[in-house]
## 1
Amino acid sequence: MESSVGPDAESTLIERARREPEAFGELYRRYVERIYRYHYRHVGNHAEAEDLTSRTFLHALRAMPRYRPRDGTFQAWLFRIAHNLLVNYYRDQSRHPAVELEDVPVLAAESGLWERLEAAELQRRLLAAFEQLSEERKTLLLLKFVEQLSNAEIAMVLGKTEGAVKALYNRTLISLRHALAEED
Amino acid sequence: MKSKSRTKDVYILLENTSGAAALLPFQQHRLEAALLAALQSSSARATPSSPFVANLERELLQAAQRRQRLWYWLGAAGGGVLSLIGGVLLWYYFWRKQPAPSWPLLQRRSKPQERRAARRLPQRSTGELLC
């Protein structure tokens, strides 16, 4: 479920959520799938992803009175909570399961068979190279390509400046390119 | 690539440590398009189960209501304590500002009360007082 309402409607909802539990429920319904997907993409396990998702929203509920819109968008704030919990999770558990490669994408049907196979092979290699990246770089790519966050929002989630995020993004693309080139 | 500069007899070798070459715009565009397709399609199946979503929503709603009740009672208790302190402070302020005889009860003593008070004082003769 993606958030499809304008920023004004959302800011009204956020204001209401400080006082009304039902309004927080509405915010929850808007973001639960995205937060869950973010956790699942990192931990690769439904049970852990569910646990981290619950904790993210319980933290958000407790911290709601402290949220200030001028510090960043609500989704960036929520993803920051999710990211911090994920960092703690890795620190505490010292485990890092890779997402299985059964998730090879389904390609558009209009492509030719050969093109589809080539694209599938490229995507498989790309996902394999992606799994070798550091957590921070993976987070950056997931927030950018899956969650469609802006550089400013990603900077808030990762606790960096926007310039640092852009530099990290460029370095990540270069390292991915190198990893693909090495396989050839 | 290594470059060297000379200061008198000492040669200093400066390592050129520039990072890997940046991607050309069309390379970056292709890589980004491939990443977008790969990550979006691999994440599409990662959806939470409906019972989990419903249960968590119920838990959050209960937690939010508990917090609201807690804040309500804390607010009521805090308000009560503050108004009590305010009342005591106001009473103290006016009590200090007004001189003691201005209390109406003290001013309006009845005659029998005055007589009783006079009787309670020790009776001394003029001689005793002069000594």
## 2
Amino acid sequence: MKFVDEFRDRDLGQGLAAAIAREAKPERLYQFMEFCGGHTHAISRYGVTDLLPANVRMVHGPGCPVCVLPIGRVDLAIDLALGRGVILCSYGDTLRVPASAGRSLLKAKAAGGDVRMVYSAADALRIARDNPQREVVFLAIGFETTTPPTALVIREAHATGVANFSVLCNHVLTPAAIVNILQSPEVRDLGTVPLDGFVGPAHVSSIIGTRPYEFFAEEFRKPVVVAGFEPLDVMQAILMLVRQVNEGRAEVENQFSRVVDRDGNRRAQAIVAEVFELRREFEWRGLGTVPYSALAIRATFAAHDAERRFGLEYRAVPDNKACECGAILRGVKRPVECKLFGGACTPETPMGSCMVSSEGACAAHYSYGRFRDRVPATPVVA
Amino acid sequence: MCLAVPARIESLEAGEQAVIDVGGIRKRVSVALVEGVAPGDWVIVHVGYALARLDPEAAAETLAAMAAAGLEPGTLA
Ligand code: SF4
């Protein structure tokens, strides 16, 4: 595929690997966090780690929307499907997310719930139009990439009077999560990994632009390089980060200039702002409660807000005690350090959310790299 | 989840829809989120929506920088 295959070229990859090896100073350690699950997936699938010198390490971040969806929110969706008889539409990735008491949306479907997988938010709206006598709820998840389509269908349902359509909104915000990784009360308990920089989101940044990261670069003195999701994009971003560290710079750079600019997609931003407002706080699986980190539907569109429409009340449910997703999503632990990894917890029988999506750190590691773990654990500074 | 694929706009249709070519396969997607796209333009597509344009010239520059980094020590990426 054009604009994909070129960015997976073996020779270019080897050239970049050589450049990283040449420029990374052997006397120091470089630890970079790739925020996005898309990067985690590319790194695992293409064996990027194997092409890096031992002193350049990648730490997986929390940027997988499926992985950060907390149990209590999945429970709300399951209760709607089973208890209220709604048609519950959702992207495929969320169907297997483990909820409380061993439940999942897939199991709710097997138990007779009308749970339907959709490819697009527009499909959910179409189902509502086709079933005017039924309540149709779209379980919306995702970062800034996936939010604008949800905003569009809410606006359209409002404008065209599709009264039986509502959205259970779980859209979350990337910058808030990055701040939380760098400074939060939990950092004191879990410890924190010394990070030298971030590989910044690809498609999220096509919407929000690179400007929001300028704050981290300045405030936390961490370089950020926004990068595409192909393996060579990640490698070039790592090279750019190594250079920033070597030169003592902490700037926002854009490796993904073919899609991203500083301002992002203004039209999409305006539509999102019209339909959504900030939530004061939101629970993230693994990160806990993060202030101003998610979106809620504005009062104008209240009729299409499933939380208001069905009077839903959120109850937090703790994760399985043995699951280390929390520490893994912060980069403090690696998947193999979880006792359940590869035994009780596999992609077929996920115990925690990081094992559900192929972008989750545990699933990516299980599928592509678990037998290559020979490097010592990441040092942790409390 | 955030995956999006590059696609070329083949033709524009009513209702802010477009027919695109994704690796040889034709699909209909919404272009309501991108301003002023025209047939021949490249976009990236996510969950049935074009999200942003893809600039072929910038892609070529990025590839050139990758090649340069692999060859000459000290070349700017
Ligand atoms: S292996 Fe499973 S249980 Fe362990 S941290 Fe990963 S998702 Fe959680």
## 3
Amino acid sequence: MHKQQSLFIEALRNPLTKEEAFKKLVSEYKERLYWHIRKLVLDHDDAHDVVQNTFIKIHLNIHKFRENSSLYTWMYRIATNESLNFINSKSAKMGLQNQEWIEAKADGLMADSYFDGDRAALKLQKMVARLPEKQRIVFNMKYFDNMTYDAISEVLDTSVGALKASYHHAVKKIKTELDE
Amino acid sequence: MNEFKNDNPFKIPEGYFEKLEEQLCNTEDTVSKLNPFSTPIDYFEKLEGAILETTASEKVFKFNTRKIFITLTSTAAAVLLVLGIFQQFPSQEPDQEQALNEFIENYYLEDFDSYEMLSMMEDNEIELNLDQITNP
């Protein structure tokens, strides 16, 4: 597996094979990265912009990839950072806090033509939007993406203990609100 | 009796507490985990093309930027070189002129003695030279 990844990365770095390898990479990971981003930014058009930026960053920076994590983890990290940067810049332009911006997005989900959730799903999204940023990211990765703590720890560069604490707090808040 | 007090004879399956923790945190029973978000039809098929197009144009853009940078740098270097050459010419001209004057002066003065040289000088020039000689 590790050898296979190294060969693939080599192909991505070689100017002669880069095009073909990058095509394969996009085809393999576009959906997974899109859904990760979508759950963070909520809106389809925003997710589309962020996923494109993410792949541009991957394309431009593949030579900087140190191979001390899996390629997917590295790309996931870029996607997470791009999503957070996007939220930062959008909320700053509107003179809002990040959380206010994301809560406004969640409030507008029912009118979004690309949101098919029922009332319970909408309620959950609104509650997730109210979580502090770190807890929101951890909750999305753990609950919706079923990622292990170890994998999340690699992506977010945070200790497993801290992640567990964040997830516990997030779940507790959501459960409390659901019971109300 | 006391020697058994701290021994726990019970065993648990490997990784039990990790799994237990996840089970306790699992809220699947209360809220659906189904993805409530959707995308336009054929979005992912089109997305691939859009990404590849963007990265290709990024490359063209990068190439053009590099080309423009090289062109501008070489133009600036050429202009500076030309300016440098032109700046050198005026400074060379007085030098050449000065050298020629000195040559002519020396050529003529070689054959004159000091009396003849004094006779060719104006009165104020003689006074000026005398002042320079007397004042250290």
## 4
Amino acid sequence: MTIDRRRLIAGGAALAGSSSLAACDEVTRERLQARLNPTRTGSDAPVAGTDAPAVEVVADARGGTVSETVRMPAQPWTYDAFVAAMAASERPSSLSEAQFNVIQSRKPAAIQRIKTYLDGKFGAADPRVVQAFESVPRDFFHYAYASQDSTAYQAYEASPKPWAIGHGSVLSDYLGQAYMTQLAEPKPTDVTLEIGTGSGFQSSLLSRIVRDSYTIEIIEPVGRAVSKIFKPLGYDNVHARVGDGYFGWPEVEGGFDTIMLTCVAQYAPPELFRQLKPGGKLIIPIGQPFRRGQVLYVYTKDEDGRVRSRRDVGVFFIPMTGAMQNRPRPQGA
Amino acid sequence: MSGSHRDPDSDGAGAAVTPVQKSARAALIPLFLVALGVVGIENALTRYFAVAKWSEYGYWIISIVMAGFALSGVIVALFRDTVEKHGEWLRAALPATMVLAAALGYERIARNPFNPLQLQNPTTWADQLLNIAGYYGALLPFFFLAGLYIALIFILNPREIGRVYAYDLIGAGLGSALALGLMFLVHPFLLAPVLLVPLALAPLFQPGRFRILGGVLAGGALVLGEAILLLGTPPAYSEFKAVYAPMNTEGAEVVAEVRRPRGHYLMLDNFTERVDADVSNNASMMEVEGPPSTYGLYRDGSRIAALPKVGGLGGGYADSALSAAPYRLRPGAEALILGASGGFRLAEARALGAERLRVVESEPVLKHALTHGLGPSRGLALGGDVQLAEGGPLAVARAAVAAAPAERFDVIDVSSDFIDAAPANVTALTVEAMQAYLAALEPDGMISVPVSIRDFPVYAFRVMATAREALIRTGLERPEDHIMVYRSAWNARILISPTPWSEADVAALETFAAARSFDVSWRPGLDVAAARANLFNDLPVVSFESGTVVSQGTDDAIAREAEAVLQGRDTPSARAFNIRPQTLDRPAWYASLRLDRPTTLIDRLEVLPQAEIGALVNLVVLAQAVVIALLVLSAPLLFRRRSHGPPEPRRVWPVLYFPCLGLGFLLIEIFLIDKAAFYLNDYSSAFALVLTSMLIFSGLGSLIAGRVGGLPKLASFLSLVMVLGWIWLVFTHGEALILSTLDQPAWTRWLIVLAAAAPVSLALGLPFPLGLIQVGEGRMLPWAWGLNGAFSVVATPLANLMSREVGFSSLLMMGAALYVLAFLALPPGRRARPATGPEPLPASSPA
């Protein structure tokens, strides 16, 4: 038997009574169900499958505010702030202040690595992406959820690598995350959706740039733990949920500018394309998660709703001479 | 003790069996139990790796096993006299140490955090190499002690070499059978605790004064060992296997479990389970419902199928799927479907208007689920327009050709999960299989073959090359006129027709693809430049060797090379990868890497598909095995002059003889397993049948060695004649026999496999004990035993690589050459001392 590892993001088809739509009124629910299953005759009988599991909506789905600049922390990220945030997120940590200071001393070099990497891959690093990395304290996201201890000492490592965080989830290497973030071209007015919260770092990164960042995790122990880490950082435009990612987040009116499937997927669910705005991007990494970066499928939606895909191999393969010059420079770069 | 009787099985023809001999034979029963237990534990470890980790790393286990045996042979050789001097109590105590070593080792590997996925990343592989070293540390002691025990029995019974080897082999064969039988009853993670028992029982059957002590020690070790296994760190699935995430979603349940030697099956109910259908990106615009939710069936932690829920076998999404095109081109088709995909492929075909379906389902648990249901999933109502075929794809296709023309098919449809559902299914995409399919089609019929292009588009080229070869062998001149290729972002479908595609079919396919945002990568008369200008799914061309993206702008990597591949011309992909046609002799599917380019493979390690890593693992295991074998080979250089006992002349012939046998036996065995897997359409039962029968019959053959030990060259010659004759018969008539009896009932084919394995195994059982008799009773005896084991380790990865690169027939040819070499190396021989007359009593004798 071959090892074709896959992470499933499909979900239950029994929308009737699905608590994922519990927050909607009856009219909205019927409209969403009709859109999701256009062949239904209007009967409330489920098409097939189990009842959808109880899904917890951690934050309500109202829109956030637009910030033209990258959101930076109001207070410096000190050891006391780290300890307070870890406690508020209900995650024990045995990290000492000396260790914390060593981690922070590595950060500038890591940021420079990111900038250099993005310069090389895209012609110029997107300054918003670099600033987002400066804003989000990556050490806060290094955690071993199975053994319940902080692994912050791993952060900003000189040789970027993916880190297992428990329960099959992985914190991808920061260069690969930088690549995928710049590829998404996030803008301040954007609304993003991530399927596969994992450590929460990607959605946090996006939240510093975009208006709202939605994220869904299917693995219950990871999702429930990680859903508590955003508020201590003051990331009130991150909306997290544990449960089914197959149907996206249908309550969000207008859909999403960027959808990321940051868990390994087999195919892109049709409903996610429905929720993708025209001109938006749906990004899917393929391959196992312990590589340095991923080959990415990038789906875009035309104005007429037609979806096209592109395979981005830039993490592993460099363009031949001339192709790099054809890339548009990011705004502000 | 008085009394003797004539025993026709004694080493001297018709000589009386003395009490000493009776006692010596009774002392072999523990060896039988130890061999049974050791092979059982080896099987348990292999299953642990397949379930908890990934099965290709089981090769490493086999290599550790044999490394332990080989090293023990060297140690016993170096300290032969000391070992013999303490042999009696060692023989009593070793089973207890083996029980403890097995338990401790198994518990340690359960704690080992080895993650093979991190081997592909240069920043993370160092830790994994340490974890692999941890496996060696955990498992080598057990297999070293096992080898030590077996070598000890050899040196304690120098006049019973043939019998000792027979007890060892037959014990091993039955141990394998026992382990396989237990896999029907016992969870894979509980095999080891059960298989400790035969080891612990061994001392109880040991005659002599240490029997009670040995039994007490073994009993105590068994209690302690079971406590370690049952109370220590429990084995578990790797969190990175496909089953982990679904099992950890809210409300997830295991609703059925099946235990089989081929795998441990779990059926899950959770919200992530859906039909795996490659549907159009524009499915929402097509106003079709999405794939339904299902149960998920996992085998050894990897998902193999979706199974339907009650009322959930709808095929409403089918028209948006990549696989729908053949049914749009041939409305009302009569179809042969390879792989029912849990029943969903049938539902899809019906929804697309297929009128008569024949289904091949090679995976036995899926087949049972189809007919009888599994857990809460009900079986399908077959009959009428849906028939479940017996036998594999080739057998069914050949039967259709032999039957009336009305039995021919419009569509032969390979499901996207068919190849991965069962190891034997790779033969469904060989040149020979495609020839059979072409013959079983209506003139305007077609074969539809799926290929994943998620990792490498090169797999599409392999299928195209295979199809091209099949078309040429069928007598068609322009294969490029008989093939069309269309794709999504994830998969390609290759349509193959016995007649050139018509313009109407080409237009129909292009219309189908355009409506669903699929791209046509090849059809007769394709304008590649025009096709690339309006792609829905960009697939850039990359250079695997230089690491550059060749494409500038949107591109179709398959369209760029399709025509050249179909015309048999050289292409960049053909230079960078292996795209030779698959044949029954060389059927490996995940064999696209050029192993003769190791530097490139190391440079691109991170992008290699997981399924291709097995070949690299093989190379590493082979290198390690060769190093160990050479170390064992050079061990006699360390032999010092013995302080007592007869002087040992330096002999060169064992250096050639025993390695040839170690390699040759395994090569023939692996050949037989592969052929039987295709013939029986099931790898697991083939493995079980061939391994068990070869071990038992070669054990019986080695019993003869004692009787003919005085004429080793003659006996070896007769054995060689039998082996070469068998190989000649296989080469000249084997394939014809296989193909002509493919349609026979399963029990008939089992008997044929047994009839094929038995005579050659009898012959193969002779040379090793004949050689051991010739090396005499000194240090060369255990060394030769270790040498044979060391080269057996080399054989498995070598055979895998040879079958992948050259073909399985190369294993037979090499096996023949090795046995000829061995025969030539064997000296005319010294006369073996008969086992009659006064003998110094072994210490174990009760007399």
